[in-house]
């Protein structure tokens, strides 16, 4: 036993020392900042292109990349691809990257990464653009409909600007028979843009499509369509949905014109995913320092070397040990009773998707209803697997219903539910009902509350951004954490609740 | 906060064992994982006990597959009363105690009449793992129904009272009589509201009791005093408990026993993680006693002596008996 204790002490010391030393090295020698800088206008954009290359055919993939004519400054730009030739051209105000390879096989993944900051980029070139164009030719019913629409637009507008925004508003009024005829039942932004384009062309007003990316992090997105027109001095931007004029500040123009984002020869199923992140100033510094000091090769292996999308996943994953630590402390030091060991951590992860208050409400509602169903099923004396399947199906249906209801009520929050892990809920219901039967309702209630408290605390700790940044940048602190966990493994003191449980001893 | 620290110190001084200490210093240290099935599966426990010549309720039969449910009639053909148990059940769940036959049906102890179909449904539920920990497939155990010794009638309410002795490396360290109450539905489980009554290891005379973490001296249902009752055949219980170490190989166990009217002390089951409320029942901390046993073991090891069950019982009775001065 003594040798085991010595062994453990040495191990803990080693882990803690290693953790502290590595972190200290990162902070003091490499000078990596300890807190995240507030740099909202610093963006890292990853565009990930995936496709399947056809065998025995050369691959040529063209994708638009931002022309950077706005107020943004590109800090650095990289095209990450194995064995592909890369070429960037400017065509009609757009920039196009061409990736090409003689041979490629199977699934291909290419990355385009752009780091930019919103800084005023010196003098702007004088904008130039067309102010007149020829009409598109329309015939028959569509011609009459278009003209019927144009008459009031003309009446209600004073100049090009008001004319365009009036036209967009009209096209968005789907109660109008003329609009419905021109749209042909397709109310997508694309199609509306086409109809607006048609109307404006009859009035000889030029119009151009603009495809933008919204600078917002942690949100999957596809390019958003805007329209623009030149009024002689400036480009005017319009939203095809509302007719609202002026491009919001968080939009980055990716390309102009009617062509699709990518064109691919020698492959199929091309797909682009955008990932944006705005806390990457440190990553850039990190990369710079890593270049400057050659012996800092340790950092090549830091988590910042991963692609952005993966980084975001790791930012969540790397916080899980902290959540587990919370549970460990609450259970072994506090004596809080929870369902299972790590169920609270999983629930805490689920709270990420749903937000805390809503998550707790949802958890309570679904668990309560599930317990009701479970107690009914108890009468049917079903075997375990069929019983669990029924409960799981019920949970899925319940979540779907909640999503639908909250959507109808206009609560978009309800949609996040879809990601609330159903299996965790099912197991929670099952275990809770077993606890209920074995130890009674009071105990089950106590355990459920304990689980929620533990999950909430774990969630709160795991969502502290400064902490996430710290652990993500200095993963060696996890070694210190492991040291603490090891020490806890041989802790023999009382739990807080035991001080109350054994109160009877001290009553004499 | 200061009050809590004071309380902590006071508990420590009394040698009260907490869960963390029990797990780290006793369960993890003395109980090897691979031996757990011996105590988790009542059928294996019983078979080991029979081999070792330790008294257990007689096994009438085992049902391990759905097909074998047909054999049920044959198993109970010669018995009017018997107990149906899941082999890996926990907390007394899934146990059916049949007290008599009633025409073609069976009558449980609570007086409920159940048909053979219902019993077969129950058997199938047990097999499917309805009552086993973790929902694994399980086996059914059909055994002798214990008739509690009339001595308990005065201090007990329904159900079968049982005796738990905590045994460290074969040395009994603390004992408790568990009495079912109305609240515990006839189950002798402290979590469910049964009473624990401390027992003097030397004499088998009951001490004060514990109910829901409080100290008590009367049975809440009958109002009779629970202390000062002499348990019959106490040395038999002590020897039975001490012998369980050789039986299962686990160093720190709770041995649950009953006193049958005819057969005397019988082992019901073993528990690899015995609870801590026994300390309240005995108004005494476990740590002082376990340390005494560990000191004794170290001393014996240095002399290269191994004690027999009888010697271990004698040591425990001399050292931990309340009628003798405390250590």
From TrEMBL, chain A:
Residue intervals of the 7 transmembrane helices usually fused to an inactive transglutaminase domain: 260-505
Species annotation: Pseudomonas mangrovi
Protein name in the entry: Inactive transglutaminase fused to 7 transmembrane helices
Lineage: Bacteria, Pseudomonadati, Pseudomonadota, Gammaproteobacteria, Pseudomonadales
Alphabetical keyword list: Membrane, Transmembrane, Transmembrane helix
Superkingdom classification of source: Bacteria
Statement: the UniProt record of this protein carries the keyword Transmembrane: yes
All residue ranges annotated as the Inactive transglutaminase fused to 7 transmembrane helices domain in the record: 25-184
Pfam families, per database record: 7TM_transglut, Transglut_i_TM
Membrane-crossing segments per the record: 6-28, 316-334, 354-373, 385-407, 413-432, 467-487
Automatic annotation (TrEMBL), chain B:
Keywords, comma-separated and alphabetical: ATP-binding, Ligase, Manganese, Nucleotide-binding
InterPro entries for this protein: ATP-grasp, ATP_grasp_subdomain_1, RimK-rel_E_lig, RimK-rel_E_lig_ATP-grasp
Pfam families tied to this protein: ATPgrasp_ST
A biological-process GO annotation: SOS response
One GO MF term: ribosomal S6-glutamic acid ligase activity
GO CC field: cytoplasm
Name this protein carries in UniProt: Alpha-L-glutamate ligase-like protein
Source species of the chain: Pseudomonas mangrovi
């Amino acid at each position: 036993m003594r040798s085991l204790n010595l062994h453990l002490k040495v191990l803990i010391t080693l882990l803690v020392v290693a953790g502290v030393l590595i972190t200290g090295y990162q902070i003091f020698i490499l000078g990596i900042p300890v807190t995240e800088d507030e740099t909202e206008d610093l963006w890292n954009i990853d565009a990930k292109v995936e496709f399947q290359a056809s065998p025995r055919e050369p691959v040529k993939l063209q994708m638009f990349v931002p022309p950077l004519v706005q107020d943004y400054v590109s800090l650095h730009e990289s095209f990450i691809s194995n064995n592909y030739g890369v070429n960037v051209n400017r065509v009609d105000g757009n920039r196009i990257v061409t990736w090409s390879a003689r041979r490629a096989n199977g699934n291909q993944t290419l990355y385009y990464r752009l780091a930019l900051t919103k800084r005023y980029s010196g003098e702007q070139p004088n904008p130039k653009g067309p102010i007149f164009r020829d009409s598109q030719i329309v015939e028959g019913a569509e011609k009459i409909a278009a003209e019927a629409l144009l008459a009031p637009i003309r009446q209600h507008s004073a100049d090009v600007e008001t004319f365009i925004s009036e036209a967009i508003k009209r096209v968005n009024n789907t109660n109008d028979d003329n609009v419905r005829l021109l749209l042909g039942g397709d109310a997508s932004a694309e199609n509306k843009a086409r109809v607006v384009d048609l109307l404006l062309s009859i009035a000889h007003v030029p119009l151009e499509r603009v495809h933008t990316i919204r600078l917002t992090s942690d949100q999957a997105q596809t390019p958003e369509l805007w329209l623009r027109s030149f009024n002689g001095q400036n480009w005017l931007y319009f939203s095809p949905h509302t007719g609202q004029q002026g491009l919001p500040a968080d939009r980055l123009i990716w390309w102009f014109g009617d062509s699709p984002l990518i064109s691919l020869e020698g492959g199929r199923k091309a797909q682009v995913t955008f990932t944006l992140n705005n806390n990457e100033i440190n990553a850039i510094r990190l990369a710079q320092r890593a270049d400057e000091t050659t012996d800092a090769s340790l950092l090549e292996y830091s988590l910042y070397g991963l692609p952005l999308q993966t980084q975001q996943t790791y930012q969540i994953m790397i916080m899980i040990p902290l959540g587990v630590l919370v549970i460990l402390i609450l259970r072994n030091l506090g004596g809080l009773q929870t369902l299972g060991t790590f169920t609270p951590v999983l629930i805490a992860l689920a709270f990420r998707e749903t937000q805390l208050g809503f998550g707790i409400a949802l958890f309570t509602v679904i668990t309560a209803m599930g317990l009701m169903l479970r107690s009914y099923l108890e009468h049917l004396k079903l075997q375990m697997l069929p019983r669990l399947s029924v409960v799981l199906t019920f949970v899925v249906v319940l979540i779907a219903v909640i999503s639908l209801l909250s959507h109808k009520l206009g609560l978009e929050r309800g949609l996040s539910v879809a990601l609330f892990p159903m299996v965790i809920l099912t197991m929670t219901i099952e275990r809770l009902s077993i606890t209920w039967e074995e130890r009674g309702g009071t105990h089950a209630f106590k355990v459920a509350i304990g689980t929620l408290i533990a999950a909430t605390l774990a969630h709160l700790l795991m969502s502290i951004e400064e902490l996430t940044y710290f652990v993500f940048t200095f993963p060696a602190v996890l070694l210190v954490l492991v040291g603490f966990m090891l020490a806890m493994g041989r802790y023999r003191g009382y739990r807080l609740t035991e001080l109350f449980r054994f109160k009877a001893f001290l009553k004499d | 906060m200061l009050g809590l620290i004071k309380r902590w110190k006071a508990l420590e001084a009394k040698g009260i064992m907490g869960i963390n200490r029990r797990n780290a210093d006793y369960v993890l240290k003395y109980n090897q994982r691979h031996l757990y099935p011996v105590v988790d599966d009542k059928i294996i426990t019983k078979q080991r006990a029979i081999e070792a010549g330790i008294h257990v309720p007689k096994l009438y039969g085992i049902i391990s597959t759905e097909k074998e449910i047909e054999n049920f009639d044959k198993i109970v053909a010669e018995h009017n009363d018997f107990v149906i148990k899941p082999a890996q059940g926990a907390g007394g769940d899934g146990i059916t105690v049949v007290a008599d036959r009633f025409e073609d049906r069976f009558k449980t102890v609570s007086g409920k009449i159940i048909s053979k179909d219902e019993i077969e449904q129950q058997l199938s539920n047990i097999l499917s793992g309805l009552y086993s920990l973790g929902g694994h497939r399980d086996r059914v155990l059909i055994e002798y129904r214990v008739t509690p010794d009339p001595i308990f009638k005065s201090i007990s309410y329904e159900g079968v009272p049982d005796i738990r002795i905590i045994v460290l490396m074969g040395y009994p360290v603390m004992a408790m009589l568990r009495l079912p109450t109305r609240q515990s539905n006839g189950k002798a489980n402290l979590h469910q509201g049964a009473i624990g009554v401390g027992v003097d290891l030397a004499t088998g005379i009951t001490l004060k009791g514990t109910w829901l973490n409080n100290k008590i001296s009367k049975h809440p249902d009958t109002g009779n005093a629970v202390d000062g009752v002499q348990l019959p055949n106490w040395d038999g219980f002590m020897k039975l408990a001490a012998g369980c170490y050789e039986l299962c190989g686990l160093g720190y166990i709770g041995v649950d026993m009953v006193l049958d009217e005819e057969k005397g002390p019988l082992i019901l089951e073993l528990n690899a993680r015995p609870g801590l409320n026994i300390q309240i029942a005995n108004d005494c901390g476990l740590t002082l006693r376990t340390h005494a046993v560990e000191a004794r073991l170290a001393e014996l090891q240095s002399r290269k002596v191994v004690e027999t069950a009888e010697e271990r019982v004698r040591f425990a009775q001399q050292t931990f008996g309340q009628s003798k001065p405390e250590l």
